[in-house]
Amino acid sequence: MPATSGIIQAAGQVSAQEHARLRAKTRLFTGIVVVSNVTGNSALTHGMKLLGDIGNSPLALIGALFHPWVALGVALLILWTLTHMALLSWADLSYVLPVTAIGYVLSALSGEFVLGETVSMGQWGGILLITAGVTLVGLTAPATAPHEDQAPQ
Fold first, then answer.
1. How far apart are the two ends of the chain, measured CA to CA in Å?
2. What pTM does this model have?
3. What is the pLDDT of residues 78-125, one digit of tens each?
4. Where are the domains of the chain?
């Protein structure tokens, strides 16, 4: 390792290897966030539709948690929350929210093709705009400021 490499890293810049590792970790966690969100919301919706209108009493809502589809949906949404928290611990909010917005597209597709919902042309137009935005943000760096553990010593 060249002597200048340690100096560059000490100045708060990240090596190419560290950058590649961060990108891979970010992609993995982004994938988990998106998939757990879409599948969790789809399972929760399916379960609640099977139960029908249960009202809004806390006891009825707690009782709904014991339906297998609802329980699966809630479990996946807990996974979504935990991985989202982890992702936000190293990646910028201005990167995470737009990139994970692809979940909106996948949720609409799930609604249309899995849950049998009707998605209007206006909604598909909005989905196209979301996809373009996700693509643009996905080409940027996940973090713009050094994390606490990357600060010069």
1. 19
2. 0.77
3. 999 999 999 999 998 988 988 898 898 899 999 999 999 999 999 999
4. 21-144
